[in-house]
């Protein structure tokens, strides 16, 4: 009789465990919903593997849909990355670009953060955001259960009670940090943390595999927003062509009062306007001329084989003309202008680095006149 009771108890425990595992798995699986179907509620033998495969499938479906519909690369990246905070049932989220040698900035975020001065927040975090810096230094996920009691946390505008920082990496290089926020204290279980690490591996694999058809997206020398060369690429160019004596022109340009566009229309519209204007500038120069995003709304253009001031004046006027053409975006009319300065190499400067310095000063002289 005692043996029967023991065996019955063991069997009951096994049944309860299997049933609990199945329900728990079904709850997690149902958070990863595809467009056309809903996952069945069943009890698989390996919950983590099933959930991971489901998530991986969802990532690839999203990426392929973006490619088929020719969605812009930053929008595709957003569609992929937002899967994590949705899965974790976060109250808000944001993705912060964290380049080594440039200003940090938020690339995209959930709608409930639209009211925040995100440029100011990004600047604050770059200076004093020890929680973000720890994620970058360790390349590991960091969870802060109570932001008010954590010494790493310092954000004036934050509503977060609990926060999760997730490093987003491509080719083992961090491109930014995904901020996952809860407005009340939350708990991230050990099971969820393990799944997050699996998801990060899959996100990295998806970005490398699917977007390999567009290597520009993965290039650490391209600005993700505008898809022109970034400051890192400019520094590499300067070092490679330090002793180059060929004739070149360096144009330094800065958008006038671009902050007003962000303030009046919002950062999302500002980003779209900057992408459109950058594309117009690209179309105003030859394909073999180089354009670099120097930082914020500042750009540098390097033009080869130019010898006369009159030629560079023509190019600058063409760029200014195309930038002045109003942009219509969601029934909003956006008008912009630029200030420029230029310098000829080697006539006015011995190298590109010195030419940038001279062109920058001349640009500010023109800006003061406006």
TrEMBL record:
InterPro entries: DGC-Regulatory_Protein, GAF, GAF-like_dom_sf, GGDEF_dom, Nucleotide_cyclase, Rev_trsase/Diguanyl_cyclase
Superkingdom of source: Bacteria
Key words, A-Z: Membrane, Transmembrane, Transmembrane helix
Domain GGDEF: 246-370
Coiled coil: none
Listed SUPFAM superfamilies: GAF domain-like, Nucleotide cyclase
Ranges that cross the membrane: 6-29
PROSITE patterns to which the protein is assigned, alphabetical: GGDEF
The protein, known as: GGDEF domain-containing protein
């Amino acid at each position: 009789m005692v043996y029967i009771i023991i065996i019955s108890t063991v069997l009951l425990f096994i049944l309860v465990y299997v049933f609990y595992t199945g329900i728990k798995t079904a709850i997690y699986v149902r958070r990863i919903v595809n467009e056309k179907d809903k996952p069945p509620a069943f009890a698989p033998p390996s919950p983590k593997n099933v959930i991971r495969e489901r998530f991986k499938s969802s990532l690839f479906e999203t990426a392929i849909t973006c490619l088929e519909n020719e969605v812009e690369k930053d929008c595709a990246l957003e569609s992929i990355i937002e899967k994590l905070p949705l899965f974790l049932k976060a109250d808000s989220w944001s993705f912060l670009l964290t380049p080594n040698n440039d200003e940090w900035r938020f690339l995209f975020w959930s709608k409930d953060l639209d009211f925040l001065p995100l440029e100011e927040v990004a600047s604050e975090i770059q200076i004093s955001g020890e929680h973000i810096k720890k994620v970058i230094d360790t390349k590991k996920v960091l969870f802060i259960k109570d932001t008010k009691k954590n010494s790493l946390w310092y954000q004036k505008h934050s509503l977060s009670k609990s926060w999760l920082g997730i490093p987003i990496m491509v080719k083992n290089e961090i491109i930014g940090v995904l901020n996952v926020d809860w407005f009340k204290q939350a708990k991230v279980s050990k099971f969820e943390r393990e799944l997050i690490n699996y998801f990060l591996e899959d996100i990295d694999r998806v970005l490398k595999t699917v977007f390999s058809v567009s290597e520009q997206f993965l290039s650490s020398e391209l600005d993700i927003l505008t898809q022109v060369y970034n400051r890192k690429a400019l520094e590499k160019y300067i070092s490679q062509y330090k002793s180059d004596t060929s004739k070149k022109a360096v144009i330094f340009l800065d958008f006038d009062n671009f902050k007003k566009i962000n303030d009046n229309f919002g950062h999302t519209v500002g980003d779209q306007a900057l992408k459109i204007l950058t594309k117009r500038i690209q179309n105003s120069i030859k394909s073999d001329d180089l354009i670099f995003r120097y930082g914020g709304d500042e750009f540098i253009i390097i033009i080869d084989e130019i010898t006369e001031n009159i030629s560079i004046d023509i190019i600058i006027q063409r760029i200014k003309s195309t930038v002045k053409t109003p942009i219509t975006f969601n029934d909003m009319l956006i008008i912009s202008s630029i200030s420029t300065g230029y310098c000829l190499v080697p006539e006015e400067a011995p190298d590109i680095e010195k030419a940038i310095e001279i062109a920058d000063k001349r640009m500010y002289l023109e800006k003061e006149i406006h």
